[in-house]
Specification:
Strand 8 (about 85-90) and strand 9 (about 100-105) form a beta hairpin. The protein has one domain: Cupredoxins -  blue copper proteins (Immunoglobulin-like, Sandwich), CATH 2.60.40.420. The protein has about 100 residues and is an all-beta fold. It is globular, with a radius of gyration of 12 Å. The protein has a five-stranded mixed β-sheet, with no helix packed on it. Strands 2-1-4-7 form a four-stranded mixed β-sheet, with no helix packed on it. The protein is built from no helices and nine strands. Bound molecules: copper (II) ion. Copper (II) ion (CU) binds near residues 55, 93, 94 and 97. Copper (II) ion binds near residues 30 and 97.
């Protein structure tokens, strides 16, 4: 059992209304789909848990950290990005789950 990752950072806001577009990333069979997305600053990535298990999506990328925390099956949470960068996105519960979000201007 992996210990909870201590990523606690308010640099990015979760569930914030934004003028940008929404890009949906689903979690299914303990996998992110798609495994890579590209968005613009101000867009939101909506992480939708379509699995039958709880996930905990977060990014440890320095300066672009976020953490949704415990996300139940059927739950969706949006993350918006205030600056460009390449984020590694992971699940704190399932270490094999990874994906990438690239944010551009
Ligand atoms: Cu997970």
């Amino acid at each position: 059992m992996r210990s909870a990752v201590g990523v606690i950072c308010a640099a990015l806001m979760v569930t914030t209304p934004a003028a940008g577009a929404d890009v949906v990333v689903v979690q299914r069979n303990k996998t992110f789909a798609p495994s890579e997305v590209q968005v613009k600053v101000g867009d939101r990535v909506v992480f939708a848990n379509e699995d039958e298990v709880t996930h905990n999506v977060y990014s440890p990328t320095p300066g672009l950290e976020f953490q949704i925390r415990s996300q139940q099956p059927g739950q969706s949470d949006a993350v918006s990005f205030s600056k460009p960068g390449a984020l590694e996105v992971r699940c704190a519960i399932h270490p094999k789950m990874t994906m990438r979000v690239t944010v551009t201007r």
